């Protein structure tokens, strides 16, 4: 026998499954229900709008690291630059030495502007160097080579204040001396400048010489250079290139020669002529 339930009595009707599920969490705290709306199911942790933990309204922008400038270190740069310059100089010199090589004294002499090289223009004169007595006539004045007196003029950096004999001077040139001559009217300050280049320097000598067509004339065996001023840098170039190098009797010194002045050769002086 079945018992019927009146249609208006809903208290005794069985709730649908969906309704049971909706009321399953009734009476429990929000935390126990698995979070409230907006919790995102994260177990109670606050979530920002971007869906990431941490709370807040807007998502955080990544922080850009701040670079701290410590300045440029110039010490190592300067050191490397200096090393590079030195290395380049060494390499450059090595290339020059291999391809060009050092200059010979003849090449240095040829490089002097205005120099006269009688070794090329008059080789017979340069090869003539016998000892002769008495006065000798020379094609060049002051003479640069040729026959000469048996005695040489002392050429140990001697500065003579009067003219000396050509015959004795040429013998000094044969030994490798450089003979500096100047007009007697050359100003004293220029004479002093010339003397400073000669004094104390072996294989050099200096004396006045009347009638020069230039203020100063320099002689070495087979070479001559004429200039207008004692400050001319070619004077030093001439002395450096030709002193000793132009010698026709290597190893023969300049000491022990004639120290007297005058245009008369040594043996004629001794004879009173």
How do you describe this structure in short?
This protein is of the alpha/beta class. The protein has helices at residues 17-22, 74-99, 105-110, 118-121, 123-127, 166-175, 188-198, 234-242, 266-270; strands spanning 116-117, 156-159, 178-182, 204-208, 216-220, 223-227.
Give a written overview of the molecule.
Residues 15-34 have a biased composition (Low complexity). This is DUF3105 domain-containing protein. Residues 35-44 have a biased composition (Gly residues). The chain has helices at 17-22, 74-99, 105-110, 118-121, 123-127, 166-175, 188-198, 234-242, 266-270; strands at residues 116-117, 156-159, 178-182, 204-208, 216-220, 223-227. The protein has a domain at 116-270. Helix content is 30%, strand content 10%. With 273 residues, it is α/β, with parallel strands linked by helices. It has a six-stranded mixed beta sheet with strand order 1-6-5-3-4-2.
Instruction: Provide a count of the helices.
Output: 9
| CA-based gyration radius | 55 Å
Q: What structural class results from the helix and strand content?
A: alpha/beta
Order of helices and strands: HHHEHHEHEHEEEHH
InterPro entries: DUF3105
Biased composition (Gly residues): 35-44
Pfam family, one: DUF3105
Biased composition (Polar residues): 1-14, 258-273
Task: Summarize the SSE layout with pairings.
Blueprint lengths: L16 H6 L51 H26 L5 H6 L5 E2 H4 L1 H5 L28 E4 L6 H10 L2 E5 L5 H11 L5 E5 L7 E5 L2 E5 L6 H9 L23 H5 L3
